[in-house]
Amino acid sequence: MALNFGDLTGVETTSDGMKFPVGTHDVYLENIGNLKKDKSGGIYFLAYFAKAGFRTLSNYYSLKGDVRSLKGIINLFAALGIPLEKRTYDEKNIWEMAKNAKGKKLTIEVIHEDSTFTGNDGTLIQTKQPRVILCKPLTDDIEEISFTDTVVGNEADESIDF
């Protein structure tokens, strides 16, 4: 049987491993980056997912409070088994909860997106970058997470709709 090394799309390697290929992967949460501000002033953090033989894959989690951002955080937390109460959280609380999950295992679904960046010599470089589109619990044995109403002070805060 002959091995064809003519098209290595999806198997590009570097000294630190291969890119995550498209598909489902069992990984562990290697780290949660520090809270940062983006150009528009929104607060976010990066989650770093690791699997032996592959480069660490980071995923951006915005803490803006819009529906898309909330869905991303809920998806990550559900996959990690972190319960969320139906109340308002400070950005730092969410970050600390995620940071405490370091080392937990989960399953991620990866796609490749077209990406363009400027090289050191000023030329435009087009590439495909892996991106996490979904996080799931590693096994189906994890209990379903419920979102309970929590009373803060003397009144319930219903500002987050799930």
Q: What would your notes on this structure say?
A:
Helix content is 14%, strand content 38%. It has two helices and ten strands, in the order ββββββααββββ. Strands 3, 4, 5, 6, 7 and 8 form a six-stranded antiparallel beta sheet that branches. A two-stranded antiparallel ribbon has the order 1-2. It has a two-stranded antiparallel sheet with strand order 9-10. Mean pLDDT is 83; it is low at 141-146 and 149-162. It has helices at residues 67-80, 91-99, and strands at 13-14, 17-18, 23-32, 36-37, 43-50, 57-62, 105-118, 124-137, 151-152, 155-156. It has one domain (19-143): OB fold (Dihydrolipoamide Acetyltransferase, E2P). The protein is mainly beta and 162 residues long.
Strand coverage percent: 35-45%
Oligomer: single chain
Q: Kindly state the percentage of residues in helix.
A: 10-25%
CATH class, anyone?
Mainly Beta
- Indicate the mean pLDDT: 83
Termini, distance in Å? 54 Å
The main β sheet shows up as:
6 strands, antiparallel
Would you list the SSEs in sequence order as H and E? Answer: EEEEEEHHEEEE
Task: Please tell me the total number of domains.
Answer: 1
Count of DSSP-assigned helices: 2
CATH topology: OB fold (Dihydrolipoamide Acetyltransferase, E2P)
Number of strands: 10
Structural class: mainly beta
What is the CA-based Rg, rounded?
19 Å
The CATH level-2 architecture is identified as: Beta Barrel
Shape: globular
Low-confidence stretches: 141-146, 149-162
